Amino acid sequence: MSKATPSPTSSGAATAARPVPRRKVSKFGGLGPGIVVGGLVPMAVMLWDAQTGALGANPVQRLQLQTGVLSLALLILSLAATPLRLVTGWTWPARVRKALGLLAFLYATLHVLVYLVDKGLLNGDFGLATVVDDVVKRPFITVGFTAWLLLIPLALTSFKGSVKKLGFARWTTLHKLVYFVVALGVVHYWWGVKKDHTEPLIYGLVAATLLALRVIFKDFRSKKKAGGMGKTATPEN
Amino acid sequence: MTKLPPEQTPKSAESEKTPNPRREFLRSAGIFTGTVAALGGGLELLSRKPGAEAQALPDLIGQAKRPLGPYDAKDAVTPYEQATTYNNFYEFGTDKADPARMAASLRTRPWTVKLDGEVKKAQTVDIDTLQSWFPLEDRIYRMRCVEGWSMVMPWLGFPLAGLIRRMDPTGKAKYVQFTSLLDTKQFPGQRSSVLTWPYMEALRIDEALNPLAFMAVGLNGRALPGQNGAPLRLVVPWKYGFKGIKSIVQITLTEKQPKTTWSIAAPDEYGFYANVNPKVDHPRWSQATERRIGELGRRPTLMFNGYADQVASLYSGLDLKKNF
């Protein structure tokens, strides 16, 4: 897990003339803040679109759809970190995983908020009963709502200290929930589409591939270890 | 990751010893900008569906007399720009902005309509001739989409009943089947097998003879835009919007109930009748409320879309939960 905020290189220009004290140079300065700002770009564009009327004739539905797709896309991106490391050996994807996950949670929360507003949250005739009815009666909503609920503990324990508090093993187990959440997200998207399932299918295939890569590589490595070929294998971590 | 052999490490150690702050800053700034562009741009491409531009206005075909009563919903008419850029017309694509973007590929003249089936004499008639058979009239109808949104549309056209009578049905005619144009050149969406093409819809003949059932050739006093179903479409305001088949090339009177496109695609979700009914939910969402395009909140959906006085008697004795 990486810290998204302090970049060791960002203050470099201030000490231009003097010899710089020896310190570690990050190869990826700017990456973390870039992810955060890049991930917030769609939100800024949505606000801009809302101002200019570019959300179309049914802005509520447009926001609903867009926040949902963004959440799923970011969640799947965060899932790509480990397979990328396994395939390429890169470690930088793992450093931005937390930021991606939290951005996914942000858009999922906006998605739920738009749904609640649509159910009348701002109208004054908001009925918790209608929401509960919806969540209980319609599998499409049940699945989506469950996915969001399961993201909450993950978001809450994504901060420094949580790993220590929970212990690494428990923290890891908890965060494996994300596989389940992604599956629920894809099913929810699939069910929400009236007929053309191309997009949910693509998201589903990408997510399935990423999950499969983990399994394949895990299998591959454990076989290597068991076979006593550890000498040639890339050392772990 | 210690892939590099040890003899290569001094080089990187050296560069760590004398970092160039300027270069480092530029490098970070570059990574930052690249990441923002890649992630922000990528997410935008994935998720943002741009709206359609306003199209050139079709020709005026004139305002006609407007019958009052149920033919003139007193609700505020949906702005033309929204009524023509937010459409479901899968022949042009599944996104709501696709029809307005793609409609230029549709050629509505010359256009003929085949009138056949259980009629005394089948015929194929040019659209302009067909249109000249009837005086055109304006009708302001509510339109409720099965997806939970609604509009108020100022159609221009003629009652379907007149056309049915003109077709001179035989005694066996029980249903009216409508077929849309099948042409992948004009309808690029038909290259996708998302629905079975051509699009088909049907009504019971007594539904078709109801004075509310309407054939539209215009909108807002102008020729119907391609995205709204030019040059000839069905409007049955007490039914969900998908019953209002667009760009009709054939009308057939039949003895048996015809198959309809959406009931083939998902028989558990879209029935033959598709009457607007707030008490019968779609399996995936409630039909109790709707969003009028142009409004942010929702309003309660009315039985038969508010046309119960005119059409409820058509369905007396029919279980509308079963016959949805």
Automatic annotation (TrEMBL), chain A:
Can you supply one Gene Ontology CC term for this chain's record?
plasma membrane
Which one of the record's GO molecular function terms can you name?
Answer: oxidoreductase activity, acting on diphenols and related substances as donors
Q: Where are the transmembrane segments?
A: 28-48, 68-87, 99-117, 137-156, 177-194, 200-217
Task: Note whether Heme occurs among the keywords.
Answer: yes
UniProt-listed InterPro entries? Fe3_Rdtase_TM_dom, MsrQ-like
- Alphabetical list of PANTHER family matching this protein: PROTEIN-METHIONINE-SULFOXIDE REDUCTASE HEME-BINDING SUBUNIT MSRQ (PTHR36964)
Source organism of this protein record: Deinococcus detaillensis
Arranged from A to Z, the UniProt key words for this protein are: Cell membrane, Electron transport, Flavoprotein, FMN, Heme, Iron, Membrane, Metal-binding, Transmembrane, Transmembrane helix, Transport
Q: What is this protein called?
A: Protein-methionine-sulfoxide reductase heme-binding subunit MsrQ
Protein role: Part of the MsrPQ system that repairs oxidized cell envelope proteins containing methionine sulfoxide residues (Met-O), using respiratory chain electrons. Thus protects these proteins from oxidative-stress damage caused by reactive species of oxygen and chlorine. MsrPQ is essential for the maintenance of envelope integrity under bleach stress, rescuing a wide series of structurally unrelated cell envelope proteins from methionine oxidation. MsrQ provides electrons for reduction to the reductase catalytic subunit MsrP, using the quinone pool of the respiratory chain.
Output one GO BP term.
protein repair
One Pfam entry name: Ferric_reduct
Q: Does the keyword Metal-binding apply?
A: yes
Name its co-factor(s).
Answer: heme b; FMN
Instruction: Give me the comment on cofactor binding.
Output: Binds 1 heme b (iron(II)-protoporphyrin IX) group per subunit.
HAMAP family for the chain? MsrQ
Q: How does it sit in the membrane?
A: Multi-pass membrane protein
The similarity comment for this entry is: Belongs to the MsrQ family.
The subcellular location is:
Cell membrane; Membrane
Identify the residues that the record assigns to the Ferric oxidoreductase domain, covering every copy.
Answer: 67-186
Its subunit composition reads: Heterodimer of a catalytic subunit (MsrP) and a heme-binding subunit (MsrQ).
TrEMBL record, chain B:
One term of GO molecular function: metal ion binding
Catalytically driven reaction(s): L-methionyl-[protein] + a quinone + H2O = L-methionyl-(S)-S-oxide-[protein] + a quinol; L-methionyl-[protein] + a quinone + H2O = L-methionyl-(R)-S-oxide-[protein] + a quinol
InterPro entries given for it?
A: MsrP, OxRdtase_Mopterin-bd_dom, OxRdtase_Mopterin-bd_sf, TAT_signal
Query: What EC number(s) would the UniProt record show?
Result: 1.8.5.-
GO BP of this protein: protein repair
Q: Where does Mo-molybdopterin bind?
A: 87, 90-91, 145, 180, 228, 233, 244-246
Question: Segment Disordered: which positions?
Answer: 1-22
Which Gene3D superfamilies does this chain map to?
Oxidoreductase, molybdopterin-binding domain (3.90.420.10)
Task: Give the family from UniProt.
Answer: Belongs to the MsrP family.
Q: What is this protein called?
A: Protein-methionine-sulfoxide reductase catalytic subunit MsrP
